[in-house]
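Morning!

This is the sequence you dropped in the shared folder:
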Amino acid sequence: MKKILIIEDEKNISSFVKMELEFEGYSTVVEEDGKDGLNTALKENFDLILLDLMLPTLNGLEICRRLKKEKDTPIIMLSARDSVMDKVTGLQVGADDYIAKPFAIEELLARIQVVFRRDKNNSSQNLKFKDLTIDSDSYVVKKDGQDLSLTNKEYELLLYLVQHKDKVVSRNTLLENVWGYDYEPETNIVDVYIRYLRNKLNSEDKEKYIQTVRYVGYVMRT
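The structure's back. Tokens below.
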């Protein structure tokens, strides 16, 4: 049984989400305070964390930052703040997805399933691309034998592109499969993370690993 931590100070929301998740067969724990939520997340093992952005004592962004330094637990951030920059900020600090309030419970359940499906698909794979090696058991990426320090989202983006090497992958497809939500014309989150990856791959030829296909998306060609 999958275990989910809900860190949410609005009781009507946490109670409703808890009830729906348990109806779907998940085990849940609820924390209403930011510091308490972080402590629980660090002490116990969860398959997923639903994290409100605005919380007493410690906000969701800070919780996400601290937690991602210690664990790779997937995080879906919940917030009434729904601008593109709010979403980008949440994803940049390590959230795996971002849902704006108010949300339909059907959408939340679908996003949860995407996270769990992605986690399953990423398991037990050892992939190579040029001088890169990806060990998905340990979430380690090496370049010429040296560890690359990647965020969770950078890792997932690189893994997806390597898994689909020699195929052109659209921005829409990357959003759906790496971030888990549909394409929004005004967001450039994919391009931002491609730039992050290229910088960390540290090649004078910026397209040595990830090539841009104009107006379409990206490809890693062997």
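Headline: The domain at 123-219 is CATH 1.10.10.10 (Arc Repressor Mutant, subunit A).

More detail when I'm at my desk.
O.
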